[in-house]
Amino acid sequence: MATESATNGTSAGADTMSAAERLMAQHAEEEAHQASVEEVPDEEFTEHPPPSGAASLPISTDPSRVATPSGEPGMSAKAAGKQPMREQPQQPAAPSKPAIDTQSEDAFPALGGPKSQPAAAAPTPWSRKPAAVGKAANGMSNGMANGNTAPSNKSSRASTPLSGIVTPSSTAPSQRGPTPQMNLPGRYSEQIQLHPSMMTPRNQLKKPVNDILRDVNKRSKANVEMKAGPGGVVVFEGTGPVDAVRVALKEVATQLCSKQNISVPVPASIRGKIVGKQGATIQAISKKTGARINISKQEAAEILEDDDMDTMVDVTIEGDPFAVQMARQDIEKIVNEHTASVNTRLKNIPAEYYPFMNANSRVNALREGRDLKMQIPHYHSWNQQAPPQTPMDRKPATFTPQAGLPIQLSGDRQAVAEARAELERQAEQLQRQITLEQMAIERGRHQFIVGDLGTSLNDFLQETGCSVILPPDNDDSEMLTIVGPPERIEEGMNKIMDLASSMSMASADIAKQHANAPRGAQAHARDITRYLQQRQGIEELERMHNARIVPDSTGAWQIYARDGKNAMKARSDIMNLISGHPPTRFQPVEVDPFFHEHLREQHAHQIRDQHGVRVIVPAEGDDSPVLLVFEDRAASPEYQLPRRQPSAQDAQAFQQALEQAQKEILNLISGREEIVSREVDAPVKFHDKIRRHVDRHHQALPEGAIPLQVLYGGPHQPQQQRRQQTPNVNLRGPQNEVDALMQSMLAFIEQEKQDELERGFTLSFDFPQKFANHLIGRKGENINRLREEFDVDIQLNEGKCEIKGPEAKANACKKHILDMAKKLEDEATHHLNIPAQFHRDLIGAQGSQVNRLQDRYGVRVNFPRTRQAAEDDTLEAADTTAGAHRNAQLPHEVIIKGPGKGADACRDELLSLLQYVKDNSFTATVSVAQNQLPSLIGSGGKEMESMRLETGAQIDVPGSREAASPTGRAEIRIKGSKKAVEEAKKLIEEKAKVFDNTVTRNLDIDKRHHRLIIGAQGTNLRSIITEAGGPDDTRLHNRMIRFPKTEADGNSIRIEGQKSIVDKICASIQALVDEQESQTNDIAEVKPDKHRLLIGRGGETRRQLEQQFGVSINVPRQSESGPQRSQVRISGQPSNVEKAKAHILEMTKDMEGETVSVPRRFHHSIADNGQFFRRLRNDHKVTVDHAGQRPPPKPSTPTPSRANGDSMPLITDDPAANANSHSWEMHDLHSAEEGDIPWVLAGPSQEAIASARAKLDRALEEAGKQDTMGFLILPDPRAYRHVIGPGGSEINRVRKQTGTKIQVPRDQSKGEAIEIAGAKAGVEDARDIILEIVQNNA
């Protein structure tokens, strides 16, 4: 501790001294002054200096340290805040120094030899106001070790390093005193004071004290001097630089002080925090203080399920007093930081006291205004442990605590300790006060006394001062237990009788309902009871009628209810239910119990789904047969228990389904070997190992195989008789499988007996301490697995691994452990900083991505947990690394651990995947109307899929539940690359904008106008939409305008789209309808033979007329007869109809005409496929009619054929040889028909008819001349060009000379003929001239 500051007062002549002179005088006064203990202010009540001026020791810079204690002797602000408040005496204005009493134990605790100490006070647990730990784990008082007196716990929180060692004083600048001091650089001074009893005797030192000091001073920049202090205390004062002074003083204390050994008890749950990650924390403390620190070895692999404040372990500290005290302070600092709160369980209080404690006001007051949670279980029904026997004369009863029903306490340690003490005091008081009594009440009335259907236990306790304990539901006992004070037991029993007698009861004999059952009424009653109990039908009836039903296998059911009406309703419902389950619904099947479990687990659900039959498999130890009950072929959860008598047809269906189910079960068990039982002698101590051996055997069975039944300690017995197992194992199953397992088991037992003889073999080898946590595993799971796998005992202690067991198994286990260490040596760990928003994509659906990486590279990839289990905060030492690592993992930290090569590759791939995710993790949201979602998704999702393919973005549309919003809007999430997100967002926003501007109108238009609005093949509808500015895509037209499909839909036309477009469409439709309704109809009489004039080719003339006059023209069909045959209907506006009618009558009026008889054989030659008729109509407005006669059939067109059948000459042939080898054919152009056909020429005037007649006469004359067609095929295709001549001169000359028509083929290489048409003589002359031309040019 710092020495007292120099007195502020100075002499009168001080003002004349210089600053240096005043400073030297002050130093001289300080050196002359000998500080005493009373003059040193207690550091606990003083203000500490800043860190730069505080004493410090080397601190580990290991980055893996979880919590490295500070080297300062003072506590942290948090720990200091936890110190108890002490009254600080008032300082007088001019304090006088009291005389020093060196014999005072209060002033100098433990300075002298060991003195007798009074009995230690009750231990106070670690809490937010820490006190001393009262009891070590080894039973010794805190501070006592190796028989030596250690400092009392009272001083363990004091600021002095150790009793007998005065805290170093300092002349460094400090704010601790009332007057600031000044010190020259390099003149820092600090002292330690040691009692001679704490120092090594001089005759045991390697060197004299002065030599030790001289050597220390030589090695250090500081100077250490020894002085005599008050009371025999030896003072060592160091002067020099701060760090050098402290190192030198520590070295002096190390060499001069005797070794000390103390044990500090700490809560076992904090052991891992003291050890630190791979021992980093405890090693740092040891390195800093120079003390050797050990933790109890027997706690190395112990796993603590609870933070129990009674469970303590010893931390042993060994070293010089200075080092021991500093290490102790650091350890206690860690304990203080982690033991502010605690969880504990009280298992030593009988559960029968719980109701009284819950009702106690003092216990409830403990919770108020404190950090304390107390959970006292509600206890009104015993489960495993029945209440004790009734004592004689109602003396206090002795109750046994139930470890399975503890009281839970959590919160501040001090509050927990006080609550625990109060509960234990209450338990002691209740033990002296309460007794119990038992009384028999009908089983069905129990739940109406205390429980959901009865009064609450608290109300019963308040009224009677007693509690009630009921038997469990699976116990047939009728005995109730009343617990309370002897004088109030009668009151409690009377209350129970009142509650029980207020119940109404009814009976239902279900056996009488089906008295003629084939297997007997009693057997059928048992079947129904089994079925309803397994089907939970009885519980359903109880809930429906607020009653209690007690079934009986004989068929006599008891019904209890608080309301008599409910009891009668329940009885009526039961009888209806029994009526709906006749014997025809049930079928027992004898099945060996060996198949029961397999049938229940593997086939019962399948039979229910396929046949509608429920399979009731008896429980273990029940000799009843398997029961088949037909329910329904409907799904099981939807099935309702029937309540009416089935018909004969239904009963037949029941039997058919039951027979099918029975056949399937019998097929399952048929053809198997005989089921046998075998008993194997096996010592009880081997049963656990045999069980694991059998489990491995069963795991190796093929899929679908039925495992054997194995019972340990004899055949199946009731639970009460299994307490003492017999040294045997029973096997049951098919004979071959039983024999095989029996042989394997006998060999295994024999090997175990042999191994027992070698259990003393011990193998010890080095194992890296840094991998100890990997070997132990979380809660010891790894080391326990190895112990079971190799059947050896494994102990791990400070880098040494000891294996005890059979030699072969020990060596195998050693090899496994060393291989694991070798693998861990190659292990690499990478810490990646990955933002948490990308974790989900990197992990993948159900971990698919991360599992793929782990399997590919053989590494472990740990993403941070979103939730940390509360129990992860309390880990024992073996699991400290893993636990602390998980707790310390940052939200954005991803850890890859595994073989170096695999870890590197996994890291690279994970970072590549991260980059891809980042590039494709741009997101956006678009708000759309909820009712727009169906149109965005489209039929079968086509529209949405189209947008995804078009943009390449991921588009997530909310479901119906997510989209539900009072605002009527839904958020569509878009994710992908930046470009894809922008395109998708733009596309959806455009659709949303269109939809938001969309309006819907309904027009009531009579259906007779719908066809007109649509038009032929939708032409009118398309025109209306496009003219209004609608889309050109015809797929969208049906969505914009919807016509009613059926009569039930009415006449309403639904129009949906943007407001401007919808308005225009509505106006167009309305105008069209108005125009249609204002139209008139008129009839024009037109002869049927004139209808073709109105229709035209393909209806062209009619369309032109309709478009020209804006009317609709309906020409009668040819199938019509009577007056309607000549009536042409004209519809439209009156003025347009009038104009159209006049025009039609003008077109079809009877025109002047002339009839010309044309020979039938010339008809087609003149008509020229109708070309002649069109020329007359176009040139002269004259039409041709045949007066109703049918034109002659068109003759076949003549075609050439080679006369000699020879093939075409080759280009290599001699032209002279082929000069006369041409082909010539002549055919008659006209048909052979006789007679004439009339041609009626009709025209607008006589002149037109005369002109048409003149053309017809010329055509007749020409046809008479053109009566022959000749085909000339030249032998050499090259000669055709000579027939044509330059510029067609030759062919034209021949035509003019002979008066024929000559056609030379274009593709002359194919051997086509030259066509010559005309008079027979002219045709022959043309042939000759052509052949002459060819001959001349050969």
TrEMBL record:
Q: Could you identify this protein by its name?
A: Uncharacterized protein
Q: Which organism is it from?
A: Vermiconidia calcicola
